[in-house]
Every structure is written in structure tokens, then in C-alpha cells.
Design goal:
It is built from five helices and four strands; from the N terminus they run αααααββββ. It is α+β, with helices and mostly antiparallel strands.
């Protein structure tokens, strides 16, 4: 390599491991902070899929629920295109974790994603090939605090059903719980 050639930017292994460790630590803290004497939440391992995916809005909300809960099989059934590729990549990342790490991560996600978010469509746009873009907000609770986030789904018809073709996460519109705020 010549002295004038640009260097490829890389993140070192220790930095990646530190970031993963920090993420897991925040997750464990979140899990511990949300435990109390309140009644058990509904089984987060069960994703409700609305009415056989009959509308773009239903499939978007069901896909979001499966994505949040890391239910990759359900999310893959509701997806196509780049959304399906993202689900498969995320599933592969989870599978690459060692058994105990994967179990801990799933427990953390189960606690953090115990409540289903409602997706409120604020704007829709017809796209080529019968697709529909849905823009709006996901609202609910996260770590026992109000949660709101901007989202955009692109849905595509597939026979009588709809599938999520793409998902774009927008900014979080609610206050981030103190537990998750990182010092700068």
C-alpha cells in the first residue's frame, strides 16, 4: 500500500467487544429495573398476528411486534424484500451468539418488549406495483415509560395478504428512560 492510498476505516475487536458488553449491561440493568411485584405481563413470546395480514396497517403493526420481540420466524413470514433480508441478518446475528449470551439477550428483549406498540398511520402514499408507504408513529410503553417513535413501512400486496417490504425507524419522540441515557 502506498503512502498516498486511503486507509480503510475499521473498528478494532476490543472496541466491538466493549460495545457489545455495554449493550448487554444496559439490557441487564433494564431487565432488573423493570422487575417488581406487579402481576406477570402477557407472554411476550406470543406475537399476535392481526387478521391474517389482511391490511397494510395490520401487517405493519404485527411485523413491528415480531421485530421488537425478536421473533424472527414470525417477522420473516410477514416480510418480503429488504425487510426479509434484515430479519434474516438479525436472526443470524442472534444465532451466532453463544448459548448463554443468546438466552440472556432474549430475556432482556422479552422484558423490554413485553407490551405491543400500536402503530398510528399519519400519512400513506401509493407506490408503484401496488405497494403502499405508511408513515406514522408507534406508541406504547418501554421500560414502564411512555414510548413514541416515528416509523415508515413500505408494504406490498402478496395474493390476498400484505407483507412488509421495508421499514425505516425514525427518531424517538418520547423521553428516553434515564436508565438508557449514556453519559457523554
Amino acid at each position: 500500500m502506498s503512502a498516498d492510498a486511503p486507509r480503510e476505516a475499521r473498528v478494532s475487536t476490543p472496541v466491538v467487544l466493549t460495545l457489545v458488553s455495554a449493550m448487554m449491561s444496559v439490557g441487564v440493568l433494564a431487565l432488573l429495573a423493570t422487575r417488581g411485584n406487579e402481576p406477570a405481563a402477557p407472554d411476550p413470546a406470543v406475537t399476535r398476528v392481526d387478521v391474517l395480514d389482511d391490511t397494510p396497517e395490520h401487517v405493519a403493526e404485527s411485523f413491528l411486534d415480531a421485530w421488537r420481540k425478536r421473533e424472527h420466524d414470525v417477522a420473516a413470514r410477514l416480510a418480503t424484500g429488504s425487510a426479509l433480508a434484515r430479519v434474516r441478518a438479525r436472526a443470524a446475528e442472534d444465532e451466532a451468539l453463544a448459548g448463554p449470551e443468546r438466552e440472556l439477550k432474549q430475556k432482556v428483549w422479552d422484558a423490554m418488549a413485553a407490551d405491543r406498540l400500536a402503530f398510528f398511520v399519519e400519512e400513506s402514499e401509493r407506490l408503484p406495483r401496488g405497494r403502499l408507504a405508511l408513515r406514522g408513529t408507534a406508541e406504547g410503553t418501554f421500560l414502564d415509560a411512555p414510548y413514541e417513535r416515528a416509523l415508515e413501512f413500505v408494504t406490498a400486496p402478496e395474493g390476498e395478504a400484505w407483507r412488509v417490504e421495508d421499514l425505516t425507524f425514525g427518531p424517538i419522540l418520547s423521553e428516553v428512560p434515564e436508565l438508557l441515557k449514556l453519559e457523554e
